[in-house]
């Protein structure tokens, strides 16, 4: 890239094209950044665990209105193990005797925002455990909030708690809005599919135009003689028009709210062929900090582009980990790769070489 110093070397990647985007200033202080370094050795690093030592370890099972807290000392002695109302005041009061050197870990799906922000304001280390990775807390014959809080604290103290990234508070609202747009895109595809299927069921000639464009939808339902079929398709087309307005409004709001946070990286992403506004925002806000991807393998793993191998005694027995990672990031990267190949001769040649060597990919 023009004006960028080549301080890191881009190695050949054997699986898919690498996308260059500019990292935020906190991750890399000079221009464009390659997503980590690609390692050619077989296999990958161990799963990321929180291994720092503290005097106190606090495990929390967080619900919408309640939370169970278990605090263990470095020697494993239980200091607190109770159920409380989920309020910042209660949490800080329970944690007050252990504030000198304590780390907090939470196991939850959707309600961790306020807890992460509170710990950041108070200067308390916070570890977010990914719910799909923390299979160890579901073992045992008894499962309840108190027992799970204790298991989180024990895993944290033993250095066996899987660690997920905590997105910056200033970027979460826009990121969630982008994820809502992804849901609208999937709903839109669900409305378009029955139209195509109904046409093929009756063996009607091809329309010859893309129904995804609003200008080509007029008279689409009238091509079918049955009134019930016409009504069904008319409902689908009306829902498409309604969803299209919501999608446009969502995309416009996302762009307006994203620019104050990371205007420069957002602008630099335009250099990637085929990337539109929504894809650029999706990549930027799902990754949010490229420093958490030290290698190319870490990036593709977080994007759900690879599967983990199950191996014992030198024998492989299938794959696992298909749900680990970010589904919305997988959608953004997959869509960006397809659009980038449309007008990129270099990428097309690279894809041809990979297909000749490994065969065509499977959807």
Can you describe this structure?
The protein is of the alpha/beta class. It folds into two domains: 1-47 and 168-363, no CATH class; 56-157, Nucleotidyltransferase, domain 5 (2-Layer Sandwich), CATH 3.30.420.40. The chain is 42% helix and 13% strand. It has nine helices and nine strands. It has helices spanning 88-95, 113-122, 145-157, 169-201, 227-268, 277-287, 296-302, 327-342, 345-358; strands spanning 21-22, 32-33, 56-62, 66-73, 78-85, 102-107, 126-129, 308-312, 315-320. It has a five-stranded mixed beta sheet. Helix 4 (169-201) crosses helix 6 (277-287) and helix 6 (277-287) crosses helix 8 (327-342). The protein is elongated, with a radius of gyration of 25 Å. It starts with 20 loop residues before the first strand and ends in a 5-residue tail after the last helix.
């Amino acid at each position: 890239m023009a004006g960028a110093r080549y301080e890191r070397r881009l190695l050949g990647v054997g699986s898919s094209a690498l996308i260059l985007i500019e990292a935020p200033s906190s991750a890399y202080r000079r221009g464009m950044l390659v997503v980590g370094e690609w390692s050619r050795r077989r296999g990958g690093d161990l799963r990321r665990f929180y291994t720092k030592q503290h005097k106190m370890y606090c495990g929390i099972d967080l619900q919408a209105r309640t939370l169970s807290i278990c605090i263990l000392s470095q020697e494993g002695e239980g200091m607190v193990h109770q159920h409380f109302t989920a309020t910042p005041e209660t949490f800080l009061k329970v944690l007050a005797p252990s504030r000198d050197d304590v780390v907090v870990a939470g196991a939850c799906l959707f309600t961790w925002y306020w807890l992460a922000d509170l710990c950041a304001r108070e200067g308390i280390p916070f570890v977010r455990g990914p719910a799909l990775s923390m299979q160890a807390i579901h073992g045992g014959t008894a499962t309840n909030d108190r027992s799970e809080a204790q298991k989180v604290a024990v895993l944290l103290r033993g250095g066996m708690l899987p660690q997920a990234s905590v997105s910056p508070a200033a970027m979460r609202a826009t990121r969630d809005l982008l994820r809502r747009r992804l849901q609208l895109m999937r709903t839109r595809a669900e409305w378009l599919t029955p139209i195509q299927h109904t046409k093929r069921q009756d063996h009607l000639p091809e329309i010859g135009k893309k129904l995804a464009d609003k200008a080509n939808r007029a008279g689409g339902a009238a091509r079918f003689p049955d009134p019930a079929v016409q009504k069904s398709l008319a409902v689908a087309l009306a829902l498409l028009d309604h969803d299209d307005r919501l999608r446009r409004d969502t995309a416009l709001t996302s762009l307006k709210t994203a620019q104050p946070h990371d205007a420069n990286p957002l602008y630099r992403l335009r250099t990637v062929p085929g990337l539109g506004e929504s894809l650029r925002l999706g990549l930027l806000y799902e990754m949010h900090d490229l420093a958490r991807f030290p290698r190319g393998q870490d990036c593709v793993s977080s994007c759900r582009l690879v599967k983990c191998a199950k191996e014992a005694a030198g024998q492989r027995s299938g794959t696992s980990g298909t749900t680990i990672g970010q589904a919305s990031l997988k959608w953004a990267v997959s869509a960006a790769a397809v659009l980038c190949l449309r007008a990129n001769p270099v990428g097309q040649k690279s894809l041809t070489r990979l297909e000749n060597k490994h065969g065509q990919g499977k959807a």
